[in-house]
Amino acid sequence: MTVKLPIYMDNHATTPMDPRVLEAMLPYFTEKFGNAASRNHSCGWAAEEAVEYAREQSAKFIGAKSEKEIVWTSGATESNNLALKGVAEFYADKGNHIITAKTEHKAILDTCKRLEKDGVQVTYLDVGTDGSVDPDDVKKAITDKTILVSVMLANNEVGTINRIAEIGKITREKGVLLHTDAVQGVGKIDFDVEAMNVDLASITAHKMYGPKGVGALFVRRSKPRVRIVAQIDGGGHERGMRSGTLNTPSIVGFGKAADIMMKEGREESARIFKLRERLRAKLYGALDELVWNGAEDPWHLPGNLNLSFSFVEGEAMMMAIKDVAVSSGSACTSASLEPSYVLRAMGVDEELAHTSIRFGLGRFNTEEEVDYVAALVIDHVSRLRNMSPLYEMHKEGIDLKSIEWAAH
Ligand SMILES: *Cc1c(COP(=O)(O)O)cnc(C)c1O
């Protein structure tokens, strides 16, 4: 086979940059180096023009009415922090309650933990076994103290797509703001801040074939006009919401990445979906005891395949297939291997969570790569299971849960 190693199938963690994006960025490092805030000479104007063009591209990309609703940040972590802290601070007089979900990205969960220390009350909604937030649960959790609901568009581990449009109907009706971490879904699935009644949305370039370290926060300007308190003070850039000299080359890259996604995303998602189904069919055709994690299509990201390979430790598998970049359902913390909190919130038992692998397919993956990875995974799962006494006992029909282990 003629594949080049390593093979990258971890596109939820980051994506390689599209060469077209790099090309658009390059002049802004050298000949067009001006500061977009320099209002008194042409070098500044050129930078400002480029930044404003990217702002228009990005606004259009998410269905925003005005480019003035885009605030540049250093990435989605900052966008999430700015959205939650900025809203909590501005609307403190109105209420102190935020609703989010247990499966959110750490950039949301850790921000909520910080806010709790400052007296904000946070409801962390449970999710279904498919990883989705029930819009009804959102409705029930809203009180007269609720100022914000934050639910992600699509989950980065298991690919579950949330019913943002339904949640948006509820929040709009109740007069509560809706923020969504749209990082994983934007460009890949339908997303439109107007149609879905989204008031704030976080996105980042490096999950859509742009550069790392640049993101945006959509902040609605009308119906309703959303206000946030800046979390970084300085020169009052970005309409006072986020100070700091703008990173022109990266912002140009953001705009270009958004533009490509807007034009090609739909077709691309169909192609990536086929690759994912090819991988899934090959694995299911050759292996038993596989567990699909996440929602069923169409509520599942086209490029996400998260499977539990019962009786095979995810970490062992990652070592075995080290020429393939994927992620496992275990997070390496300082001392121990914790099972993914997302899988746990979905009710996946700890044992099974440790055997899960996330394949994240993207723009630059090929059929040849899928075939290579499928063969490799099948080979190693079979080998590792053949070495597993538990798998053998399971095959003999012994109920492993009924066994009294000596080492208790
Ligand atoms: C990657 C990711 C983030 C963080 O984005 P950065 O730009 O890397 O800070 C936030 N939310 C989700 C869902 C992500 O996948």
Structure description:
The chain has 408 residues and is α/β, with parallel strands linked by helices. It folds into two domains: 7-12 and 265-398, Alpha-Beta Complex (Aspartate Aminotransferase, domain 1); 19-261, Aspartate Aminotransferase, domain 2 (3-Layer(aba) Sandwich). The protein is built from twelve helices and 15 strands. It has helices at residues 19-25, 42-62, 76-90, 106-117, 135-141, 164-174, 248-286, 314-320, 341-345, 350-353, 367-386, 389-395, and strands at residues 7-8, 70-73, 97-101, 121-125, 146-150, 177-181, 200-204, 215-219, 290-292, 304-309, 324-325, 327-328, 330-332, 337-339, 356-360. The strands form four sheets. The chain has a seven-stranded mixed beta sheet, with helices on both faces. A four-stranded antiparallel beta sheet has the order 9-10-15-12, covered by helices on one side. Strands 1-11 form a two-stranded parallel sheet. The relative contact order is 0.16. Bound molecules: pyridoxal-5'-phosphate. Residues 75-77, 105, 107, 152, 156, 181, 183-184, 204, 206-207, 215 line the site of pyridoxal-5'-phosphate (PLP).
Low-pLDDT residue spans: none
The percentage helix is 25-40%
> Strands of the largest sheet, in order across it?
2-8-7-6-5-3-4
Number of helices: 12
In the CATH scheme, the class of the largest domain would be Alpha Beta
Mass-distribution shape: globular
Give the ordered list of helices and strands: EHHEHEHEHEHEEEHEEHEEEEHHEHH
CATH superfamily of the largest domain: Type I PLP-dependent aspartate aminotransferase-like (Major domain)
At CATH level 2, the architecture of the largest domain is 3-Layer(aba) Sandwich
Tell me the span between the first and last alpha carbons.
48 Å
Question: How many structural domains in the coordinates?
Answer: 2
Largest sheet: 7 strands, mixed
Helix-strand category: alpha/beta
Q: Give the bound compounds.
A: pyridoxal-5'-phosphate
